[in-house]
Amino acid sequence: MQKVNGNKTQQGETPLSVLTLIRSRYLPYWPVFAVAVAVAVAGAFLYLRYATPLYKISGVLLVQEATNGLAASDMLQSLDLMGGGKTVMENEIEILKSRTLTKAVIRNLNLYGEVIEKGKIRDVVLYKDSPLKFVFLEPDAIQMAATGMWPFTYNAATRQVFIDGKRYPVGDTLQTRWGKLVIKPQGKHPDTTASYTLHLMTEKQWMQLLLATMKIMPAAKAGSVVDLEYTDAAPERGEDIVNELISVYNKAAVEDKNRTSTNTMNFVEERLRIVSAELERAETQVERFKTAEGIVDISEQSKLFLASVQENDRKISEANMQLSVLDAIEKYVTSQNPGGNIVPGTLGLSDPVLLELVTKLSETELQLERLRKTTGENSPLLASLTRQMDRLKPAITENIGSLRANLQAGMARLQTENSRNMGIIRSVPGKEKALLEVSRQQVIKNNIYTFLLEKREETALAYAAAVSDSRIVDAAESAAYPFSPQKPMVLGISVLAALALVAGFVSVKDMMNREVMFRADIEKVTNAPIAAEIMYHEGKDPLVMINNSRTAVAEQFRALRTSLSYIGLNGDRKTLLVTSSISGEGKSFISMNLAVSLSLAKKKVVLLEFDLRKPMISKMLDMRTDPGISNYLVGKASLQDILRKVGDNDFLYLLSAGVMPPNPSELILNGQLEHLLHQLKERFDYIIIDSAPVGLVTDARLIAPFCDATLYVVRHQRTPKNYLKLVEELYQNRELGKLNIVFNGIKRQGVAGYGYGSGYGDINGYGYTEVTKKPGLFKRGVK
Prior knowledge:
- By secondary structure, the protein is of the alpha/beta class.
- The model is unreliable at 1-16, 69-76, 78-85 and 753-783 (pLDDT under 50).
């Protein structure tokens, strides 16, 4: 067992359970709890009857990622001119909670005045069921002094409303203390027996009410769904408020997008005007340069000139080849060895005359060559062929000359054209550079102009397609049953409050009590073990162990008898000291009944009445006190003289106190006590010593060294709590040996509890009252 700062913690010991605490401390007061609960339930039903029911209205809004209104707008997104970006849920929730949107809701729904119907049990807020609707045209004119409850009556026949001491016609624009307003009928026929009241509130009051009542929170931590909750006595009005809040939120988002689009459109139009003028000047400069340089398309022209040079080079190559063929033909014709040369090819030649002449010449030479082999030199045919060949050669030569002259003239022309084209081609880079410098600004301005045209169209499309980035998942809807007051909750809270109130009263009452009330009070202060708990004995007879008694008190003494071996009484260890803090705690009662209980178990027991100042056991047992222990201690009596059997019980003996000595403490210390106990140990199984209270005198401390164990009696509602510290000191210092506590006289608590009667324990100071004597106590046989 450990003790730290007075707080006890014992190993192996179960703390006082809640059930035990309830049973011991609160259960005795069950009638008070029952009455308190009944009163609380009645009050709860009364409250439920008169309380105004409140309904919870909820809506769900999906806040999507912000878009520009276009599915694919790379240019807009690159400049981010439309404000596109990721939506931050915290920001959107704060926007929904903003005063700006709240004011818009109040103004749109004209919530400044609500009609209340006075009822017998409770007032009812009328919204769409009201016969009239008050439309305030100048909300800022409603002053704080003019708010509150304004009773009014409505005469449907004359269509007049009497309010604020004046009569106002329905349907007209009226000038009142609340500014201009229009009273409109709503089609509901007024109840002639009902009393109506107009409840007016300023815009600021309504705004504070809405902001305090409206709950806006994300449905999930990582999601983009927002839950909106509002509580109102009029469910239809609550639905309109939540729906209107969502509507003005969406409208504000669209207006913000359109405002951005409008600003962007104005900017684009202004830039188009400026860029258009700059582009026109750049195009004029390009036109002048091309005109001056004779350029249409410098790149295409360069290609054409290069192609012309290549074509001319090809033609010159063909002409050279044709000249070579003409030279070969001319050489063939002018050769002096006719028939011995091979006819050259005419590849590349296209002149039909020359080709025909060369062919005839070749055929004539072949004929002439064959005739020479078969005829003589003087043959007329051979001479004819020779003359024919001579005529063909001059013709061919003349033709070749003509063709050569033509080819050479064509080649000269082609070479001249090539020279001119190459000059133009060589001048292209310079012109192209100059043109590039002139047209660069034109290209830049043209690109900017094109971009601005595209952006103007995209902005116009974004303006036309602007929608809110939120979507209504669930429109506002009120609960089918009131949110408040909730009948189970009100009843539960009422019952709990009643129980807590009574429990608090009992707890405070116990805390104010200076006496020991519960076992827990003992365990909080001292580590000494509690050997037994004895209930309060309600009878006048202090002896409970008679006539085979089966009462609860008798059973508790039997349990105490069984536990003696656990506190150290067994074998040669047989001496038990019984003491207490003050008188009146029942130590004599415990000593006597424990001795009787042991004797019933066929154990020889001697009971020593060692409270020499105020002996009590002899009176309880109706036995004489003289001679007794005091006589033995002074040497005027022997053990046989003072040892008396109790009634007919052969196992129980008593040593009464004897004559009251003037100096009990000195008498205990004269050495005779040890001799007396030695004799008794030889003859008895148990020696029980009823000593004086240890908190008042030192007798018990003097006797304790001769005892094997001590029972320290603590009495319910009698022992002061501050004496428990003395018990702890005695236990820790081992002044009383093996000390064990008996919690005695435990009463039933509460309104059905009992107080002490005139029995064994009543006291006045340190003394005992008289008890009724019981002659022949054990003649009936004690069990």
